C-alpha cells in the first residue's frame, strides 16, 4: 500500500512541476506581447531593434529550460 501512495505523490509532484513551468513560460510570453514589445515600439524602431537582441537572449535563457523541464516532467509519468 505504501508503494502505491508513493507513486501517486511522485505523479503529483511531476504534474505540479510541469504546470508550474508552463505557467511561468506562458506568463513571460504574455508579458512580452502585452507590455515589453509595445513599450519598445513606442520608443521608436531604432531603439526597439537595439534592445531586441539582448532581450531575446535573456528570454531564451529563461524560457528554454522551462520548456525542457516542463516537457520532461510531463513525459516522465507517461504524459
Strand and helix layout:
Blueprint: H1 2-42, H2 45-76
What is the gist of this entry?
With about 80 residues, the chain is mostly helical. The chain has helices spanning about 1-40, 45-75.
Walk me through what this model shows.
The protein is an all-alpha fold and 79 residues long. It has one domain (2-76). It is 92% helix and 0% strand. The protein has 2 helices and no strands. Helix 1 (2-42) runs antiparallel to helix 2. The longest helix has 41 residues, at 2-42. The protein is elongated and about 55 Å long. The chain starts with a helix and ends with a helix.
List keywords for this structure.
single chain, 79 residues, mainly alpha, 2 helices, elongated
